[in-house]
Amino acid sequence: AQTVTQSQPEMSVQEAETVTLSCTYDTSESDYYLFWYKQPPSRQMILVIRQEAYKQQNATENRFSVNFQKAAKSFSLKISDSQLGDAAMYFCAYRILRGSQGNLIFGKGTKLSVKP
Amino acid sequence: ETGVTQSPTHLIKTRGQQVTLRCSSQSGHNTVSWYQQALGQGPQFIFQYYREEENGRGNFPPRFSGLQFPNYSSELNVNALELDDSALYLCASSPGTGFLYEQYFGPGTRLTVT
Prior knowledge:
The structure holds two protein chains of two kinds.
Chain A: E1 3-5, E2 10-14, E3 19-21, E4 24-26, E5 32-39, E6 46-52, E7 60-61, E8 64-69, E9 74-79, E10 88-96, E11 105-106, E12 110-115
Parallel strand pairs in A: 2-12
Antiparallel strand pairs in A: 1-4, 3-9, 5-6, 5-10, 7-8, 8-9, 10-11, 10-12
Chain B: E1 5-7, E2 10-13, E3 19-24, E4 31-37, E5 44-50, E6 53-57, E7 64-68, E8 74-78, E9 87-94, E10 104-105, E11 109-113
Parallel strand pairs in B: 2-11
Antiparallel strand pairs in B: 1-3, 3-8, 4-5, 4-9, 5-6, 7-8, 9-10, 9-11
């Protein structure tokens, strides 16, 4: 079965500090993309960052970076200099390259709170 | 450029009824995917429509059906509603199928079945 596990249902971080959200996944495929999505309360889900599995270099987008460990099937998200606007549900997801659908497989999410 | 929109925002239905949810895709996007997000869960893939044809389906029963129109907007229909169908229904549009294309999500429709 193809699954995504986010072991931290809730996390809290002080404003301006750094927080890391964990994600592990299980797939027998060798080619896939990994994603972190942000879902603010009552707002649309938006893509935060993505990582191609064939790339060894970890993706970075401004304050957001990932630690991708392919052999361990681990894909954590690090948020630096946390801001109040970072408070949201964060979902880890992947998409396999084989096939034409490209549907996303999501974890259950981690609720991030940011304390002022 | 208009983003993905969904209607209605909220909906309350009774068990056994039928419901239709609507999604307008982003300009230039010909693919729409539908997801069900139960409370406390991540979204689960229902199905995808590409150029008016169903292009793949997740593990959902046939009472979940859909349509895509020539303007690439889409409908999700659910017959014989069950209590477990209560969820946030998300649609996502993309400029094509497959892994190369980012999916852009709408705000969702919150369905409550009583």
